[in-house]
# Entry
Amino acid sequence: MTMLANLLKGAAAAAALAISAAAPARAVDLQFYFPVAVGGGAAETIQALTDEYMQLNPDVKIDAVYAGSYQDTITKVITAARGGNAPQLSVALSVDMFTLIDEGLILPFDDFIKTEEDKAWLNSFYPAFMENSQTGGKTYGIPFQRSTPVLYWNKAAFAAAGLDPETPPATWDEMVEMGKTLTRRDANGNVTQWGVRIPTSGFPYWLFQGLTTQNDAILANADGNETNFDDPRVVEALQYLVDLSTRHEIMEPGIVEWGATPKAFFEGQAAMMWTTTGNLTNVRANAPFDFGVAMLPANKRRGAPTGGGNFYLFDGSSEEQLAEAVDFIKWITGPEQSAKWTMATGYVAPRPATWDTETMKAYAADFPYVLVARDQLDHAVAELSTYQNQRITQIFNDALAAAITGQKDAATALAEAQAQADAILAAYR
Amino acid sequence: MTGYDRALTILGAAMLAALWVLPLIYAVWTAVHPSEYEARFVLTAPLTLANFIEAWQAAPFARYFLNTFVLVTVIVICQFVLCTLAAYGFARYRFPGRDILFSLVLLQLLVMPDILIVENYGLLRRMGLVDTIAGIALPYVASGFGVFLIRQTFMTVPQELDDAARIEGAGPLAILWRVYVPLAKPVYLSYGLVSVSHHWNNFLWPLIVTNSVETRPLTVGLSVFSAVDSGVEWSVINAATLMTSGPLLVAFLLFQRQFVQSFMRAGIK
# Structure
């Protein structure tokens, strides 16, 4: 009994502490949610940039909220907006644009673009990034932490296999040929080094979209209500991906883990890997050998999807707050700020102006591979994005997984996925 | 049971136990070795605490620990007080509408808390409790399960004890405090354990309600800490995971019997 009584007393003290800690949140003019999907330092970079802005503009207070992964952030922001407490701005995946429009949560930037200078700013982003940011003639997203997948190769492994360490594969056939040379087996026939690694876990559609683009197929229309999953060129691309493991035996069979991919590359388990340019700074810091970065190999053409996050403007705040939010976005996408962000992560600076700064020129002179992803933008297409995006990509991912694990052949899996996607998207046509 | 049967049962149990404990062993392995040994299991691998230090320094875990501790304490205390009073009323008082009210309380068990998230969030915003520990706790303090569990226990207390206390001159609250609560102590312990473990691990609701380090509990802090895109540093993430689940693991080992009993009791009654 006394134990319980003591427990109660202690708890009462704890409760008092909690209630005193529960004072209402401090008054802020703007609230800003952001996710981080690359190494630990990125959150500090955003916080530092926000602080710098507040120093320059003492009348504006910005509460930058690090909300975890992209998935966590979108959950948080949708709940907050529906609960009547939307932040003024948030970074979220560019592909969530249609979902956010469908929910009626975001506002187009066009209403805040008044002067010629503003218009010039809006037109100063790479067109490849704007594809995922505009629909119906309006701009809903401002590119910020944007990426594309690139090919990283291990120069030491290339040299050891008798290949030219400075020449990465430029075509699908070359990748297979080089992959065969690079795949090494021990005396028992177990593979010690795979030729190439294209991760297929979690969101396989993204890297796969690299293959479909190279095969000259477009997965979804710009209105986000029509998909082309059963296009013969898409089937062919999937067959190529499956063949890497089954026919050519140069890639680990089955589902290949996304998160473990850089690690496998560092440890020499794969001589080439496809992954996001957002990993560039991480690879540079951790690869124990000389590595190279190249555009993804071409087939009918070069190609890659864009990826990553945009700024969105949320409904539910005063005009004044929203105008302030737009000012902040203009500032943080400015050349110097954007250069800092690119150097800290490897994300592609979304405006040509950034690449013309002295900071960026000096960085690129020292580390030219930072330019690969930018140059690849000329060949890039919008990441797969439709209405009901989560459901559509899930259907597509499941079809890819079924083909990769050999449960279905590529044509069947994709035809089924197309039928399911049609059933969902018919409502939006 | 024959010896053969017994051996088979033990073997089966051991295999299941091994399967269950494997992730934990892997977490310990990666956490105490340098990251090169994540997938190489060499007995001579050097031991290190660097992963723990790195994880501890990479995020404000001390603050997260405090937040979680305050959070679960507040929830459990409030649940005890509210559920005890409600259970006492339902168990020993006759009043019009009692059964309807009690079935409404039971109905709460059928509602998934997740579908109320938007509604709860809107309410908390109007109360100005978004991004506070009180805000994380509030939706959970009136627990239908707790009322049900404690009421069932109070119903088993012999009426004679109640009557005897009344003859001695004890009022209703004194009877509750001196007769019912002491007899239900094991139930409080087990319910408390279940509640603590549940709220220690709760993720989605705290994620949505909290915006700052000052209020974030461990689960949200851990998730924010372990980003996947950059290539997973399993050794550091596992060190952080062990740290954050450590207190609960220790509590489980200490109160193992009560833990198991509490889940059984909750099922049987």
